[in-house]
Amino acid sequence: DAGVIQSPRHEVTEMGQEVTLRCKPISGHDYLFWYRQTMMRGLELLIYFNNNVPIDDSGMPEDRFSAKMPNASFSTLKIQPSEPRDSAVYFCASSYGLSNTEAFFGQGTRLTVV
Amino acid sequence: AQTVTQSQPEMSVQEAETVTLSCTYDTSENNYYLFWYKQPPSRQMILVIRQEAYKQQNATENRFSVNFQKAAKSFSLKISDSQLGDTAMYFCAFMKLRGKLQFGAGTQVVVTP
Predict the structure, then answer these.
(1) A63 close contact with B: CB closer than 8 A
(2) pLDDT tens sequence across B26-69
(3) Of A13, B28, B71, B95, which has the maximum CB count within 10 A?
(4) CA–CA min distance B49, chain A (Å)
């Protein structure tokens, strides 16, 4: 398996624009996580899905952020409208099961909002 | 709420030497999991080692070992025979049963020749 695949790897956008980050989890994994990494706040869990259903979105910063998982092999994280403070590295991770299992991370998307 | 504290922002170690990274956590749970993840300059998050709280034996993975002190809520990582490729940010993480991974702030390890 190629691992968790995220696209794009880098994204630069202007404030106010819509941004869509994409993730393909490892085949067979039933959990998918979206994390955000910043210098100030470290690694934060934004939302996670189990079998394509959002389980906990308490980490989503505000209504400008939304995440979907239309099927087991694809998820998106959308920011609309984007703001400079959204600049961060966004990671997607997947796992089979929860807790006693390894979460495999993608290489992240570095988002810069100017 | 659980918190994970890594008190060392940066550690430097010479090749072939040993370095120990500290991690403490706060929880009222009895059963949980602890992890160390490595993030090299490539940005990829890689699992280094995992410990189940109900196991008293400390986990070991090749040159990486942990010292898990449940009563003290301490989970340190020892890197033995350090190699240049070990240079990375190391994150301690906590997960309660069926919970979310919570990360510490990280410790930057720099291995020098």
Answers:
(1) no
(2) 999 888 999 999 999 989 899 999 999 988 899 999 999 999 99
(3) B95
(4) 10
Buried-exposed string A24-39: b where 16+ CB fall within 10 A, e elsewhere:
bbbeebebbbbbbbee
**Alpha carbon of residue A108 to chain centroid:** 8
A45 touches chain B (CB under 8 A): yes
User: Cβ(A75)–Cβ(A68) under 8 Å?
Assistant: yes
Mutate to test the interface with B, among A23, A98, A101, A109 (most CBs of B within 10 A): A98
pLDDT of residue A100: 56
Whole-number Å distance between alpha carbons of A1 and A96: 14
Dist CA A54 CA B113 (whole Å): 47
**Amino acid B56: pLDDT:** 85
